[in-house]
Amino acid sequence: MSNDLWELYFFIQIVLDALLLVALLLLFLKFRKLTRLPIGDLSERLSLAEKLTKDLERYVEEEKKLLEKVKLALETGTKIWEESGEGRKSIKEKICELSRKGLSTEEISKKLSLSEGEVELVLSLERFRRGER
C-alpha cells in the first residue's frame, strides 16, 4: 500500500509540475507581448513631438513679439490722443450729439468706430457732469 501511495504522490507531483510549466509558459508569452514595443514607431512619434514643440515655441515667440508691437502702438496712440485735447473734445461732442439725436450706444459705437464701453463711459461722465445721475 505504501508503494501505491508513492505512485499516487509521484503522479500528482508530475501533473502539478506540468501545470506549473504551462502557467510559466503562458506568463512568459504574455510578458513577451508586453515588452515588444515598436521602437521605430516610438522614435517617429518622438521626433514628431519634438518638431511640434519647436513649432509651438516659435509660434509663441512670434505672438509675444506681435503683442509687444500692439502694446507699443496702443501706448503711442493713447499718448497722441491724450496730448491732442481736440481729438477728445470732438469725439465727446460727436457722442453727445448722436445721443441727443436718439441713437443707441451700439449705433454710436459703430458709427464712430469705438467700443460700446467707451461710448457709455463718455455719456455717463457727461450725465454726471450735468448732475443727472
Give a quick rundown of the structure.
The protein is mostly helical. 89% of the residues lie in helices and 0% in strands.
Average pLDDT metric:
83
Strand fraction:
under 5%
Number of helices: 5
Q: CA-to-CA gap between the ends?
A: 115 Å
The helicity comes to over 70%
Q: Strand-and-helix sequence, N→C?
A: HHHHH
Number of strands: 0
Computed CA radius of gyration, to the nearest angstrom = 41 Å
Could you say which overall geometry the principal axes of the C-alpha atoms support? Answer: rod-shaped
Structural class: mainly alpha
Main sheet attributes: strand count, strand direction, barrel closure: none
> Uncertain regions: pLDDT < 50 for 5+ in a row?
none
